[in-house]
Amino acid sequence: METVNHNIDDPGDGEQLDALFRAYRSASPDPETGPNFMPHLWQKIEARERGSAIFARLARSLVSLALALTLLMTIAVSLLRRQAPVPPETYVEVLAEDHENQNFDYFEPVHVEPAADQH
Amino acid sequence: MLVDYELIKRARDGDGAAFNELVRAYRRRILGTIARLISHPEDVEDVGQEVFLRLYFSLDQLRSAEVFEPWLYRLTANAAYDYLRKRRRRMESRMADLSEQQVMLADAQAGGRVDSDDSERKRIRETVDSLLDAVSEEDRVLLTLKEVEGLSLKELGTIYQVNENALKVRLFRARQRVLKAFNNAGRKQAKRVTSPR
């Protein structure tokens, strides 16, 4: 085993701790696995795969639904445009036409007379 | 290496039989490591299955078969760390629910169990377990892998993905903390279990 420089105040403690760890290693042998270890492992793997498959199917369905809705919206918008044709004039032209007959007299500059009692 | 690279490559490519063989080759070693990392025999198989479950779903990310073992140890250390963290949280909430008198009673009962236990092995395990319980989960996992499992600094460097010098510092600090706990509480008991009879 590779050693690390254990720079501690009391080297006796470090040695005792090492001995304790060694004793712990020999007191804890590798356990035997139960007969159900592999079947349970595969059950867990299959359960998680099923969960992932359901999620993937759900995600695919949502994507398909979103695509279908987009397509329907596109068709609906194009149909509506065809039914209500856009006027040939531009927005500015329409505004100008609308304001043509209005009277702008009240926009004349205001003439202010000085007050009579001031010198 | 307990298996050849070809088997690992086959398992990585989705061969179920190869994966089975891989688990059979490593399960005893991995369960032994987990047993020493978590010190709760009743949960060892569950944590072991979690390790192999993670292995199954991440095997396709393995770059090369040569790094399989450190990688498996990394999964093991992570699963043990997750278990220890959850367990500590569970214990804390359970202890918080008990009244002071109940806590004293539980301590007394635990002490009684230790005194009445004649098994030397069990006593050693409990001594080390109580020492490692006094430090963080990170220290516990790192020290167990190094001091008990006997992994080299190079292997630990691959598992933790840090350089050897940084690892030495972490190990030194973790060891200092265990030594402190050792001096505070476990020294008398440790002398008893490590001295020749």
Q: Summed up, what is this model?
A:
The complex is a heterodimer of chains A (119) and B (197). Chain A has 119 residues and is mostly helical.
From the alpha-carbon coordinates, what is the Rg of chain B to the nearest angstrom?
Answer: 19 Å
What global shape of chain A is seen? elongated
CATH topology assignment of the largest domain in chain B? Rna Polymerase Sigma Factor, Chain: A
Shape of chain B: globular
**Biggest sheet descriptor of chain A:** none
Largest sheet of chain B: none
Number of helices of chain A: 3
How many domains is the backbone of chain B divided into?
Answer: 2
What is the mean pLDDT of chain B?
83
Q: Count of DSSP E strands of chain B?
A: 0
Question: What is the CATH-assigned architecture of the largest domain in chain B?
Answer: Orthogonal Bundle
Total of helices of chain B: 9
Helix content of chain B: over 70%
Task: From the alpha carbons, calculate the radius of gyration of chain A and give it in angstroms.
Answer: 44 Å
Q: For the terminal residues of chain B, how far apart are their CA atoms?
A: 38 Å
Order of helices and strands of chain A: HHH
> What is the CATH H-level superfamily of the largest domain in chain B?
RNA polymerase sigma factor, region 2, helix turn helix motif
> What is the strand tally of chain A?
0
Walk me through this protein's architecture.
The complex is a heterodimer of chains A (119) and B (197). Chain A has three helices and no strands. Chain A is mainly α and 119 residues long. The longest helix of chain A has 47 residues, at 37-83. With 197 residues, chain B is an all-alpha fold. Chain B has helices spanning 5-12, 16-38, 44-58, 68-97, 100-116, 120-133, 137-148, 153-160, 164-194. Chain B is globular and about 50 Å long.
